Fold this sequence. Notes:
two-stranded antiparallel ribbon, alpha+beta, 5-stranded mixed beta barrel, CATH 2.40.50.140, 2 domains, single chain
Amino acid sequence: MSTLSVIENNQEIRGQSVSTLKPGAHVEGCLLVRTASQRLNKNGRPYYDLLLADRTGEISCKMWDISNTACPAANTVVSIRGEVELFRDRLQLKLTFMEEASQPVDMSSLVTAAPKSADEMMAEITAAIDSFGSDMLKALTRRMLEKAAGRLGYYPAAMRLHHAEKSGLLHHTTDMLRVARAICECYPALRRDLLFAGVIIHDLAKTVEMESDDNGTVRDYTVDGNLIGHIVRGVVWLEEAARETGIMEGENRPELVQLLEHMMLSHHGVPEFGSVRYPAFPEALVLNMIDNLDANLNEMQSVMSRVTEGAFSERIPYMDDRRIYHPFYTDDAD
């Protein structure tokens, strides 16, 4: 259910959403605060720069007169009024009113969610594990899933970037599984079960790296996330899982455990992206590549949803500071 209304000719048109807004629309309703900060304009006067959202998308917002308005906190719900403008080929909402929402709001209308249910995606992951020929991989992967149980169903894959949505971590994982399956058909020398296991476990420790509510909205990174991070924590979990399942005793570490540990340590590819090691064998390389592919495609599609056809986005720091183009996708004859 939408929480926005558009005012035209003094008449209220209900049922609008961020994705349906057009230039010139006068808007009022409730939106979720993704980011909010106070900045200075070219004359040195303060204003608010915000990114507000509902479940259909996000819109950049500016509030120039802030004398009687407090800057809202991220992940809070605000009641707003404003006008949609087109600024450098991008929709922007100029706010004339903003305050904390005084009435309860259905968060399902504001929070972006994965396109499939958590149960459906978990069933896909479980089926992949059941197909493993290695009992050791089955035991390790199942035990790793148990460590994230109770949180995996709603956790996002990131705070602000790719798959920052309810059940986004499952969305990211299942999409990667489908890509991995297709790649294994092209390159049959790859150890399919090892690659699948790496896909399933590589980001599980994000469930303790971030603080997320059950709507998949992240407030901040945890102390463990800031000090340790999901890569190293994931390796610690894996060693625990190997000991808890009886696969590893003492310092005798089977090769499969070492391979999975390396895949987790190297899945970000290069040190500047947080990788502890460069991928050193084929399945580790493929894991890094499909992780990067899925994250970048998801982020690019999110950016395109905020840009009009035939226009470029702002520069995206996460994607090498490039600007993303939104094609018309039409034949020249059209």
